[in-house]
Amino acid sequence: MKKMSLLFIYLCVASCLTALAQMEKPAPVKGEILLKHTAYICSFNTDRLTPNYVAWCLTPDRVNGNTKRTDYFDVDPQIPSRYRVKHSDYSGSRYDRGHMCPAADNRQSLTAMTECFYMTNMCPQNHGLNIGAWNDLEIQCRSWARNYKKIYVVAGPIYRNANSQRIGKRKNMRVAVPDQFFKVVLMMGQKPKAIGFIYDNKNVNDDLRDHAVTVDAVERITGFDFFPQLDDATERRIEAECRPAAWGI
Fold first, then answer.
1. Contact at 8 Å (CB) between 161 and 34?
2. At residue 119, does pLDDT exceed 70?
3. How is domain 16-247 classified at the CATH fold level?
C-alpha cells in the first residue's frame, strides 16, 4: 500500500510539472502547424506565412547567457517546403524581419540562438517599432525574468482585416503584414499575475503603460485562449486585470 501511495504521489507531481512546463502554450488554434523548437513553441499560419503566436518560458539563464547574436535568418526546416519563407521574401519591403521571440531571450545556447532566427519566428514589422517601443517591451520582459526568476510570454501579430498588405515577390509566397502586435506575460508564484500589450505596426516610441491591456482584451481580439493550464478561478481573475503598477511600470 505504501509503494502504491508513493507511486500515486509521483504521478501527480509529474503531471503537475508537465502542465507547468507548458504553461506558456495557448489552447490549440484551428489549422495551425505547431512547431516545437529548443526554446520556444510556434503556431504557424500557412495562409499568412507568419506565426499565429510564438510562446516561451523566460528565465535568467536565457537572458544572462553568453551566446552572441548570429543575425543569420534562415528557413525553418520543420515546416513543409511549400510554406518556407526565405530571408529574401522581406527584401525591398521596408519592413524589418521582426522577431516574436527575440534573440536576446535566447542567449543560453547556440542552438536556441540559431533557431530563433528561423523565418517562422518573424513578422513584417515597422522598423521604428522594432527598434523603439517593441524593443523596450522586450527589455522589460528580460528585467521581469531576472526579478521573478521565471515568466511565461506569448507574442504574435494581429490582423484587423482579411485583405492584409502582402510582401514578397515569389508566387504563392506573399507574406501578410500585421496591423498590430500583441504580447501577454504571466508570472506565477504565491500571487500569480498577468498583463497584455498591443502595439500598432508603425513607428511607436511612447510609454509601456500606454499599450497595457488585460489578457482578456488580447483574447477577444485574437481569438486565442492564453494560459489554459491555470485553474479557472485564477485564470478569470488575472486575465481580467491590467495593473501596470503591480509590474513596476
1. no
2. yes
3. Extracellular Endonuclease; Chain A (3.40.570)
